[in-house]
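Weekly structure sync - notes
Attendees: PM, LS, DV (DV joined late)
Agenda: review two folding runs queued last week.

Item 1: First target. Sequence and structure tokens pasted below for the record.
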Amino acid sequence: MLPLKLDRPLAVIDLETTGLNPRLDRVVEMAILKVMPDGRREDHVFRINPGMPIPAAVTAIHGITDADVAAQPKFADLAPQIWELLDDCDLAGFGIARYDVLMLREEFARCSMTFQEEGRRLLDAQRIFHMKEPRNLTAALAFYCQEEHVDAHGAKADCEAALKVLAAQLRRYPDLPADLDALDEYCSQRKPDWADKAGKLRWLDGEIVINFGAQCLGQKLRALVQDNPKFLRWLLKSDFPCDTKQIVSDALEGRYPTPPAPAAIRPE
């Protein structure tokens, strides 16, 4: 099945969690597909009680609720078994280098166990995808228009190429929004749960929380107004976007934006 000659087991891993912050969030489900050098495969799936609520916006993504994991073991209870399964394994997955491995390392650390990538090969299908399928304008013009971008990085030539690519995309994908407002929203890099344009603040269960740094990461803005206004005043004097500062300034004066509907902040 896998056109690789393995000299030790390869563990393909994937985690579902309460969020994206390895330091603050917890694993709620873990799958390990263990491929042996002789071709045999072992499949293991663990449901895990994270010891904290699963935000509704996150449940909307992976479908796992608080009730689903209420009677499940904690990660600490499963850590020895998971450790043994991964022992002497190389690791594989999609995006594991920037997410799953970091989350796993933090979970083991909370159990006083040091999980190291050193000595393991790490096969990340996402990195291969990004390296083998370039996402620059030259590649887009070749893919969508079957044209060579002769004057790449010349401003006018790049504009012409971008216009051709955009037109070709609109013809190729009939499901793309047909009006400019909807297409603008589709193209936006802003995540649905961001409270400001830069993502320094985000919505979590109807409250704005800090989404940067280490000092106050994950803390509610409303709580900081009461407990640590010094941090918020520092933010107002620092190099942050205007809309971020406006939300913080309003909060210090007791004004908070209305939380969006849950469907509106559902992460993609």
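Item 2: Second target, run right after the first with the same settings.
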Amino acid sequence: MAYGMSGRVFHAPFIALHPGFKLKAVVERHEKKAAADHPGIISYNNVDELLNDDEIELIIVNTPGSTHFELATKALEAGKHVLIEKPIAVTSAETKALFDLGRTVGKHVMVYQNRRWDSDFVSVKKVIDSGRLGELIEVHFRFDRYKTTLSPKLFKESKSVPANGLVYDLGPHLLDQAISLFGKPLSYERTTGIYRENSEVTDYFNYHLKYPHQLNVYLTSCLLIAQPIPSFVVHGTLGSFIKDRVDTQEAQLDNSIWPDAPGYGIEPAGEEGILVTIGVDNQKIKEKVASEKGNYMGLFEAVYHTIRNNALYPITEEHIAWQMEMLKG
């Protein structure tokens, strides 16, 4: 595991706290920062040193997307299980090769899709599963930001680097959320655009996924949305549910608020979703729906049981294959 923002925020706190794991080591090529947060941790200078540590069973691959296939392959060949940041690889062929290699060497290949455990998404899923919306007609999921400045990390902004741009950055989150709820679409259409000045990579996309029973699902993301609209809008034959994207976990973790802290993963008051149903005499009934608690530890709990008990990891190989097909357009 690298100890940049991803390692520090999204991985290390959970590995350190989960009783089934031991946070043994990271790779830090230059500055050695991990020990300040995790005393006693080993900071290896390169990946080969990490892979040669016989005590390590699980490798987290959280480097740039274009490097995932090579590093995950090396980890599997070294006899390690792998948890790979999204996107798992650049192509569907690489994705299949990783899962095939995992079967060959008897190790698990798992993809890190933490947004299934966001408080807002869990709340939306609960309302959908309750049946209170009736048969679904139209679903909108959005993930918007406002960032006019290009990233100083050139690998994120160069069209010569594969698995780049907003489609590969936030696309896997939205696609995975849709797949986890509705499965594989019957068909889909994709629109992309580049709007930031001097940008070489996609900074806008929209997917229209078509499902059985005339269900239409729209997934949208843009880096130039000054005033975001609700990120979750679900319409059914019996009602509608509207919810903002307000999961607090990333901000809390970035401010060293760990998953065992009081209030972790709990949305602020006033951020409840709005459920609108139709009562007698066609009167609208509006009610606030309290948000569920967000908890990325659920993903690491799934990783643990997959490795120790051979449980089925919830983000399945099939789910990832469908996602990769749509990422390539």
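Discussion on item 2: The chain has two domains: 5-113, 119-293.
Action: LS to circulate a short write-up before next sync.
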